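Hey, can you fold this one?
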Amino acid sequence: METIQEAYLYMLKVERQFSEHTLKSYYDDIVQFNSFLEQEYLNLNTFEYKDARNFLSFLYSKNLKRTTVSRKISTLRSFYEYWMTQDQTVMNPFVKLV
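Sure. Predicted structure:
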């Protein structure tokens, strides 16, 4: 897991005081995202909108409920928003996904 992802999860725990259950869900979402990155030979730093669309398709191919997919996308949208506060060169590839 990337350091920025660990910092994001730490922020959710300490600053936002998310429950352990919620933190586990966010952690699992990020782990699944990292597995997708690895599988597709993608990099967190160069991930872009077209890759986010492919990730969305990947999630639906797993026959996940729409609410589950929405939560996972929300997790990643929130992660990128956090990352943008830490690094102004980062763009959020999930911002346009519905």
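The chain has four helices and no strands. Let me know if you want another pass with a different chain boundary.
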